[in-house]
Structures are given as structure tokens and as C-alpha cells.
Design brief:
Layout: E1 6-10, H1 14-26, E2 30-34, H2 37-47, E3 51-54, H3 63-72, E4 81-85, H4 90-99, E5 103-106, H5 111-120
Parallel strand pairs: 1-2, 1-3, 3-4, 4-5
Helix pairs in contact: 2-3
Length: about 120
């Protein structure tokens, strides 16, 4: 990732959003924020971010459904998705990759680990 990379952070928890927003901005990323799945899909369709950090558990449209929607749309399927969630069971990890994610990181988040994963992808 370059310093001009646009990262969409999707989470319904203000503390997580604030932590990631501040850490990513300090690292030179442009950060967009969505607090629900519907907004995340709309932002991806309009802005086409370079990568999405996506919480799996959100009210309404959960992260798995968001990822599936992004991957079935020709205009957004190329956007890499990294799940960030408290769901640690193997079935959830498999569901994330089955939905189309390229990576899966568990909460509590370490901003340095998240940035390392962004850089790798």
C-alpha cells in the first residue's frame, strides 16, 4: 500500500473506529468510515476504496453479507476485504474466506498488526 491508499473501515463500535482511524491516518492512509453494512456497500460503489477493513458482526447487514455483495458486483469485486472481528471459531474464519475476504484478524485489534496486514495486501 502507498501513502495515498484509501482504506474503508467498517465497524459499528465507535472505539474501534477511532482507534483504527487515528492509527491509519498517522501511517499516511486516507480513511473512510462506515458504521453499518448498507453504508459500506454504498461507499464502495461510489468511491472504490483500495481496501476494506470489515467487522463481521453488525446490526442489519452483517460483514459476511457485505463481503458477498461486494464480490458479486462487477464494479466492487476487485476491492480486497480484511475481516476484523471478535469471532474466533474456525467456522467463522472459513465463512469470512468463503465470502471473499483475503485476510481475517481477530479483536482486540493491534493497530500495528492491522497496518502490517494492509501493507502485505
Amino acid at each position: 500500500m502507498t501513502d495515498s491508499a484509501v482504506v474503508l473501515v467498517v465497524d459499528d463500535t465507535p472505539d474501534t473506529l477511532a482507534l483504527l482511524h487515528d492509527s491509519l491516518v498517522e501511517s499516511g492512509y486516507t480513511v473512510l468510515v462506515a458504521t453499518n453494512g448498507v453504508s459500506a456497500v454504498e461507499i464502495c460503489q461510489q468511491v472504490n476504496p483500495d481496501i476494506v477493513l470489515l467487522d463481521a458482526v453488525m446490526p442489519g447487514m452483517d460483514g459476511f453479507e457485505v463481503c458477498k455483495n461486494l464480490k458479486k458486483d462487477l464494479n466492487t469485486r476487485h476491492i480486497p476485504v480484511i475481516f476484523m472481528t471478535g469471532l474466533t471459531e474456525s467456522e467463522h474464519v472459513v465463512a469470512g474466506f468463503t465470502a471473499g475476504a483475503i485476510d481475517y484478524v481477530t479483536k482486540p485489534l493491534n493497530p500495528n498488526e492491522v497496518i502490517a496486514r494492509l501493507t502485505t495486501h
